[in-house]
Amino acid sequence: MSLYSTNGRYLKIMAIIKKHFFAQLDETIATLKTEGVEVIRLDIGSPDLPPHPSVIETLARASARGDSHGYQSHLGPLSYREAWTGMYKRVFNVDLDPATEIVPLLGTKEGIYHLSQAVIKASNVVLIPNPYYPTYLRGTELAGGTPYFMPLLAENGYLPNLDAIPAEIADKAKLIWVNYPNNPLGATAPLSFYEKLVRFAKKYNILICSDIPYAQVYFGEDAPPSIMQVEGAKDVAIEFNSLSKSHNMAGWRIGAAVGNSAVLNTLLKLKTNADSGHFGPILEAASHAMGLESSWIQERNDIYSERRDIIIESLRSLGVDVASPQASLYIWCPIPEGWTSEKFALAMLKEAGVSVAPGTVFGSKGEGFVRISITQPKEIIAEAMDKLSKWWKTL
Ligand SMILES: Cc1ncc(COP(=O)(O)O)c(C=O)c1O
Question: Exposure winner among 49, 218, 256, 394, fewest CB in 10 A?
Answer without folding.
Answer: 394
